[in-house]
């Protein structure tokens, strides 16, 4: 049951997308929402001199970062009130992904911007903080790309793995509470296996009161086809398992789930 949502923010435009998405989700679910801002150690503490006799960093830097974090927290609270919600926002210090993972232990769902404040300087990979969070957390997490909005049906990407069964359970809860339809996408090069997976997912979804549509593909990469299916459906959220059939290989960014997170213009919920 999703009753509490934590959103990680750093004041960037990308994090703003995550804030807006988390608040919209909290409003539609009737959930409580809170925020976290991490002032990273590398910025809060001066680097070691290492015998270089370099001048110390300018005074006031630490105070400026604290003031900035306070301003981000105030803006988040204002955004929450604009959605008819009350929200708190905590500022902590440390290594960003570790602190976010630590605080997320007390939440049912974590929401984080996919790209972070350094998005203009990276290439095809997700931001390092996001990658660390997705790798370390055991809490279901939504990765939100810039421009993503919570509007339209849910797309459930189902491959018959234990992770996708968890995703189906999450999709049922979200669809029921948000009164949104579900599009079930199954990717399999074996048509007989696809039929079996649809049979299984129908049992998992049960007798939902919202419409359920089915889509499948036998050609192409599953991550590309999942994103294409979500686009075609006008989905507002892709729901899939954080891990598929092989958790060892899917620890790395080459996994199907990570590839969908990396390329999707639609927010992706990785169920755990």
CATH class value of the largest domain: Alpha Beta
Count of individual beta strands: 10
Given helix and strand content, the structural type is alpha/beta
Largest sheet: 10 strands, mixed
**Secondary structure tally, helices:** 9
| Count of distinct structural domains | 2
At CATH's second level, what is the architecture of the largest domain?
A: 3-Layer(aba) Sandwich
Beta-strand percentage range: 15-25%
| Averaged pLDDT | 85
Shape: globular
Alpha-carbon distance between the termini?
Answer: 13 Å
Question: Brief overview, please?
Answer:
By secondary structure, the chain is of the alpha/beta class. It has helices spanning 13-29, 41-44, 61-82, 96-104, 128-136, 162-178, 191-205, 222-233, 256-263, and strands at 4-8, 32-40, 87-94, 109-113, 141-144, 154-158, 182-187, 212-217, 237-241, 268-271. The protein is 42% helix and 21% strand.
């Amino acid at each position: 049951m999703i009753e509490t949502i934590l959103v990680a923010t750093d004041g960037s435009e990308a994090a703003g997308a995550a804030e807006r998405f988390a608040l919209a989700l909290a409003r539609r679910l009737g959930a409580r929402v809170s925020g976290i801002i991490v002032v990273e150690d590398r910025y809060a503490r001066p680097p070691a001199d290492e015998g270089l006799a370099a001048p110390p960093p300018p005074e006031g830097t630490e105070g400026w970062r604290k003031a900035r974090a306070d301003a981000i927290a105030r803006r988040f609270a204002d955004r929450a009130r604009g959605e008819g919600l009350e929200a708190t926002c905590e500022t902590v210090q440390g290594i960003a992904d570790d602190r976010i993972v630590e605080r997320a232990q007390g939440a049912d769902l974590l929401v984080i911007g996919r790209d972070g404040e350094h998005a203009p300087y990276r290439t095809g990979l997700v931001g390092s903080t996001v990658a660390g969070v997705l790798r370390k957390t055991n809490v279901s997490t939504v990765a939100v790309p810039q421009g993503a909005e919570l509007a339209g049906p849910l797309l459930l990407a189902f491959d018959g793995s234990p992770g996708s069964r968890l995703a189906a359970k999450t999709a049922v809860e979200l669809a029921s509470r948000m009164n949104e339809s579900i599009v079930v996408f199954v990717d399999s090069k074996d048509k007989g296996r696809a039929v079996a997976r649809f049979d299984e997912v129908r049992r998992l979804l049960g007798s939902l009161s919202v419409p359920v549509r089915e889509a499948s593909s036998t050609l192409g990469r599953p991550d590309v086809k999942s994103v294409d299916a979500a686009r075609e459906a006008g989905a507002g959220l892709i729901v899939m398992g954080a891990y598929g059939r092989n958790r060892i290989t899917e620890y790395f960014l080459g996994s199907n789930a990570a590839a969908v997170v990396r390329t999707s213009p639609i927010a992706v919920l990785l169920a755990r």
